[in-house]
């Protein structure tokens, strides 16, 4: 009887040891880590220096996912996770009317994050953990988002067009009233370099951007042709200390681009 009780306690202890949340990409890892601070352990699946569009799961990734009590994924972005029945997809929290060009980079729109992503994840977490810390963490994070939005409007009061290599920041620029075109095939568009150069030459081009996780070959050609410097954004926050820090680091890069620094 004593042995049986000990075995049951061991199983309980083991399940607690392996209880954690896995988040597929770094931006949501940063966000979920803040929401679940003091509540549960959070682990990152994909390193932030890789392109999630082309990433394939490794054996170690599969082992990590197998022991997770919950998986947070963006959807339509990272490796297929359909075989797992404990996945929450952020894409399901964004109203379809706001999704354009099948673009899955929802975390880069601070309004999506404020009104849909944070409230929805917080509600799911509270149902699961019943811990008031989640609501306290949510309030703090939303306050930080509000401050960022105010700061961003001060920097982004401009009109014109930005050209990007990959449309990760599509929703971001659109929210702040800046028109955007992109070079990469995919996301429901395919534009040749010659055509895009001719199009841009007749427009008020305010900045050129590529991303740390994307090749720079095409944007270099555009930059040389237009004699305009390009800047490197980081949608996955390789060096970000927290979720809002990801926003501020990119905002500073955009500020420099707009000032041509």
From TrEMBL:
Major location category of this protein: other
Keyword Metal-binding: yes
Listed InterPro entries: Bact_metal-bind_prot9, ZnuA-like
Highest taxon, organism lineage: Bacteria
Keywords: Metal-binding, Signal, Transport
One Pfam family linked to the record: ZnuA
Cell cycle recorded as keyword: no
Protein localization: Cell envelope
Protein name: ABC transporter substrate-binding protein
Species of the source: Thermosipho affectus
């Amino acid at each position: 009887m004593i042995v049986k009780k000990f075995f049951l306690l061991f199983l309980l202890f083991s399940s607690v040891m392996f209880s954690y949340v896995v988040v597929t990409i770094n931006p949501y890892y940063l966000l979920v880590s803040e929401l679940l601070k003091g509540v549960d352990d959070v682990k990152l699946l994909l390193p932030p220096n890789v392109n999630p569009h082309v990433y394939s799961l490794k054996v170690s990734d599969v082992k990590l996912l197998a022991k997770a009590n919950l998986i947070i994924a963006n959807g339509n972005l990272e490796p297929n996770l359909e075989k797992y029945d404990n996945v929450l997809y952020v894409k399901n929290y964004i109203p379809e009317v706001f999704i354009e060009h099948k673009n899955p980079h929802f975390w880069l729109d601070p309004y999506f994050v404020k009104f849909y992503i944070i409230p929805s994840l917080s509600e799911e977490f509270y149902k699961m953990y019943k811990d008031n810390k989640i609501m306290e963490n949510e309030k703090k994070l939303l306050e930080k988002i509000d401050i960022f939005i105010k700061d961003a409007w001060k920097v982004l009061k401009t009109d014109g067009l930005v050209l990007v290599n990959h449309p990760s920041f599509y929703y971001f620029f659109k929210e702040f009233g800046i028109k955007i075109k992109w070079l990469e095939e995919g996301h429901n568009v395919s534009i040749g370099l010659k055509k895009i150069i001719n199009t841009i030459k007749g427009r008020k081009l305010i900045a050129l951007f590529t991303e740390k996780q994307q090749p720079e070959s095409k944007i270099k050609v555009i930059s040389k042709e237009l004699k305009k410097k390009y800047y490197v954004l980081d949608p996955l926050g390789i060096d970000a200390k927290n979720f809002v820090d990801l926003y501020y680091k990119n905002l500073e890069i955009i500020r420099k681009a707009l000032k041509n620094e």
